[in-house]
Structures are given as structure tokens and as C-alpha cells.
Specification:
The chain has five helices and six strands; from the N terminus they run H-H-E-E-H-H-E-E-H-E-E. It has about 150 residues and is α+β, with helices and mostly antiparallel strands.
């Protein structure tokens, strides 16, 4: 599927659409994604900052999605674990940027070449437009070469 079509579909996905999470860009080669979470009256928490669940949701699927598209159909790619560290209150729109480089993909391919499972952590920050860190997100991916592709 073309990345531009996939981006539009993600933006219509109810957990993103109703929580003001938007995929601003998704590179055609699936190496990069930029996400924004707009601060709205319906997604603020009790102290008027970004709701923590939305901060995690905006970052949740992207390492897996980028890896799935880049590695292709010969690999299983699953989210295994995740964590978030809230650094500062998000009192404005916040952003997350994901970049999956070729060197990391090569490492995953090499580690999975024998058919065993590979667990790898990915990290990124959620920031304000001026670059202030609001949260740090860690996601662990499970990657494995499918048996028929060995």
C-alpha cells in the first residue's frame, strides 16, 4: 500500500481521529513518520495537560509499522513491550518523529537470519514545537524470519 494512502487511513482510525492524533507525514519508503497530538478540550486531563494515554497512543504503533513495511512479508514483526516516562506536562500540541534507518534494518535481518526471535528496543521523545521533551517512549519489537522464507 502506498504510504500516502496508509497515512490517510491512519488519520481516520478512531483512536487517532477522536483523540486529535494526526500522522503529519509518512515517507513513501516507510523510513520516517511524524505525528502530532493536538491539545483540545476533550483530550486534556484533570490538570489541563495532555492525557498520558494519548501521549503513549500517538507513539504506540509506529516502530512496528515502519519495521513491518521495511522488512516485508518474510518477517513477523510484533510489539512486545512498551513504556513511557512522563518528563513534563504537555500544555500544547506535541510531536513525535520516528526514523528507521537501513543500518538498524540490516542488524535486524542479520540477527533473525537463523530463524530465531529478535527483541530490540526503540526509543523516541515526544516534544513540543520548540523541542522541549514532554515524554520519552520505549517500544520493544519482536522480529522473526518466517519459516518458509529461510
Amino acid at each position: 500500500m502506498r504510504a500516502s494512502t496508509f497515512r490517510r487511513l491512519l488519520n481516520l482510525w478512531p483512536p487517532f481521529l477522536f483523540n486529535s492524533i494526526r500522522v503529519q507525514s509518512l515517507s513513501e519508503d516507510y523510513t520516517q513518520a511524524r505525528i502530532v497530538l493536538r491539545l483540545r478540550p476533550w483530550n486534556r486531563n484533570y490538570v489541563r495537560s495532555q492525557f498520558g494515554g494519548n501521549l503513549f497512543a500517538m507513539a504506540d504503533p509506529f516502530w512496528m509499522l515502519l519495521a513491518m513495511h521495511r522488512l516485508g512479508p518474510d518477517y513477523y514483526v510484533w510489539d512486545k513491550a512498551g513504556s513511557i516516562d512522563f518528563v513534563a506536562p504537555g500544555r500544547e500540541d506535541v510531536y513525535a518523529h520516528f526514523h528507521l534507518d537501513e543500518a538498524t534494518l540490516d542488524e535486524l535481518r542479520e540477527a533473525a537470519a537463523d530463524g530465531g526471535k529478535v527483541l530490540r528496543w526503540f526509543e523516541n521523545d515526544i516534544t513540543t514545537a520548540s523541542g522541549d521533551v514532554v515524554a520519552r517512549v520505549r517500544k520493544q519489537l519482536y522480529v522473526r524470519l518466517k519459516p518458509k522464507a529461510r
